[in-house]
Amino acid sequence: LTDVPTLCDIMEEFLGPQSEYNEEEEERKYYRRKRLGVIKNVIAASVGAMIVYSVYMGLLQMQLILHYDVTYREVKYSNLGLEDIDHKMLMGINVTPIISLLYTPVLIRFLGTKWMMFLASGIYALFVSTNYWERYYTLVPSAVAIGVAIVPFWASLGNYITRMAQQYYEYVNYKEEHVQEQKKLPKGACHRYIIVFQSVFFIIFHLSFVFAEFPMCFVLNGYLHENEHTLCNVKYCGANISGIIPGFNTTVLTNLPRSMLLIMVESGLMGFAFLAMIIFLMLCGAAYRPTEEIDLRSIGWGNIFQLPFKHLRDYRLRLLCPFFIYSGFEMLFAVSGFSLSYGVCNLGLKKLWLLIVVYGLSCSVFSSLSLCLLRLPRWVCLVSGAVVHVVLLVALMVWSFPSKNPEYQGALLTISVLWGLGTALNKTGISTLLGMLYAEEKERLDFVYTIYHWWQAIAIFIVYLWSNLPMRAKLSILLATLLLASYCYWVMERRLAKDVRPRLPRIPRPRHKVTSHIVWWISPQWINLASQRLD
């Protein structure tokens, strides 16, 4: 009977220290799982953004081509005025972001970075759903909603990817004292992770240009006229023209697509839009700890509203503004100006998908070149992209050719590839540079990326306004902006090399308010009463 273990012996054996338990090994496994979770977050955010923009751009392109055709408008929507609806819809998408600097930081701080991405993807899904019933009161409000969501969506994405790099550094160096005490990171500590994560994001995201052409390639191309019909009145392409494609035929469809076919395509796009929402909701983790989220909101909504404007005092952001503007110019010029006025003008509407797919693949593949910043100085990426685009802009300014010449297809595809190279270096370079400049200031990231994408939205609005200008005027504006951006960037790097301290606005300390009923019990009257009773 003495050999039978008592209840105390069993409990002691169960609750006592385990001989097989290795605390250090378990801690290492825990932080390894955390690092894998960060990588999962980066890939999920990248895939979600790629799906959202594949759906949005694919639907918008198909919608604008269908509404451009006179027969489609007259037969299906004779008295609705689709041209006017499209004009106001594009105005809603391009004009509304101008005021986004007023509300973007407030929305991001109120909802949180992850929930802002989820909400914005839901607004894009709303835009897809309104195409089931094409009316003024469905299309225009949804377009305005997209205009409201564009800058918060992109500011949240930039903030999220940079925060994931910071978290990855913390999980790699979890034994460091400054990480355990949640102090500011050492200067340059997480730069390598910012470079890698931003590169991965743009490699995946730029595939959206490829997938956006699937509705055009597999559905709409079978209903388009040949070049002899659509380009019958087009004489010249390139630098000598004004507007988009002067003389382009207003009937581009051989016969109207069946309504059921269009509903099936829109249903497929709607399904992918919901998939993106689920990815943001289920697979993306939080960008900040709960206590950090509370601290970010607790500085006061008035301060949150003012801080984006105050950050413009920082000479780094002021000198990067021309590059922000050029970033918006060049991307929209690639998918609308060059692809239409040089590509479609010569090869026809049936080859539009080919030009965009080549451009998107080029952007995706060459985004990996930003990994060279792991070994080379940070200016290499932006300067290389600027050099490529300067050469292309000068070439496009002197290149004018007659329409309907298939022998120019190789040259046009080569320019698409090279322009994609410049776009990839530009986009990854700017986002990586901002992350590196403000890597140690995680409470400023949402303000910085808001300013970046706000200037980009201003540039896209300007491109929307200049659609009727001569092509050489558009190219001259692009070239002048790029040269100014390059000079300003050189000035910024020179000031940083001289260790000129930027003028950063002070962020107020968090003000935590206790709203519990305990406050009532700790009022002065009750404290006095308690002290009297103790006496």
TrEMBL record:
GO terms for molecular function: Toll-like receptor binding. Signal peptide: none annotated. The chain crosses the membrane at residues 38-59, 89-108, 115-133, 139-161, 193-212, 269-288, 319-340, 352-374, 381-402, 447-467, 473-492. Pfam families: UNC-93 (PF05978). It is a multi-pass membrane protein. Its main location: membrane. This is Unc-93 homolog B1, TLR signaling regulator. It comes from Anabas testudineus.
